[in-house]
């Protein structure tokens, strides 16, 4: 898929205030700092569309972007960032889960996992929660440029093994780098295929 237009629409803290639209929607979720906003910029080829930061906790709202005037891409705050206050953290969790529970337009969520790390409990629990709520999701392993190809392969193999302890099969997954553009075509084609079907 070629991105012809990518426009910011609105930021919200309440799912009820998100765009009242029938367009298909794809959301990016994962731990704070995993690279959600950077990936959105890489996918759309717009360096500053979504706000990024080296400090975790940058994205604090539900951000809608309109792509090619025919689907929405959504940047969400991260989960599991210990340094925000307990009450802020709870608000994140509440509106993140509310978003997934209520947003009927959501076609698929992309759960981002840092390819450098061993499986983390919080990600496993989040995917479990998605499964229990029957919310379709894929995995994207991020920051692939930070590992040598062998180590990357090893980590992803390990991750699959761990997933298969809980899941009958490995969800669809992609490998990405916001720095090199790795994964761009595959992820956009995946979305395109669903939108066309
Ligand atoms: P929150 O909004 O705080 O939840 O974070 P986020 O998941 O949106 O992460 P963000 O895109 O802001 O990126 C966090 C940091 O990781 C930034 O310093 C990015 O430059 C860096 N980063 C993101 N993706 C990549 C990548 O693919 N490769 C490398 N090397 N760095 C990355
Ligand atoms: Mg962000």
From TrEMBL:
<dbReference type="InterPro" id="IPR019987">
    <property type="entry name" value="GTP-bd_ribosome_bio_YsxC"/>
</dbReference>
<keyword id="KW-0547">Nucleotide-binding</keyword>
<dbReference type="Pfam" id="PF01926">
    <property type="entry name" value="MMR_HSR1"/>
</dbReference>
<protein>
    <recommendedName>
        <fullName>Probable GTP-binding protein EngB</fullName>
    </recommendedName>
</protein>
<keyword id="KW-0479">Metal-binding</keyword>
<comment type="similarity">
    <text>Belongs to the TRAFAC class TrmE-Era-EngA-EngB-Septin-like GTPase superfamily. EngB GTPase family.</text>
</comment>
<keyword id="KW-0342">GTP-binding</keyword>
<feature type="domain" description="EngB-type G">
    <location>
        <begin position="22"/>
        <end position="197"/>
    </location>
</feature>
<keyword id="KW-0717">Septation</keyword>
<dbReference type="InterPro" id="IPR030393">
    <property type="entry name" value="G_ENGB_dom"/>
</dbReference>
<comment type="function">
    <text>Necessary for normal cell division and for the maintenance of normal septation.</text>
</comment>
<keyword id="KW-0132">Cell division</keyword>
<keyword id="KW-0460">Magnesium</keyword>
<dbReference type="InterPro" id="IPR027417">
    <property type="entry name" value="P-loop_NTPase"/>
</dbReference>
<keyword id="KW-0131">Cell cycle</keyword>
<dbReference type="InterPro" id="IPR006073">
    <property type="entry name" value="GTP-bd"/>
</dbReference>
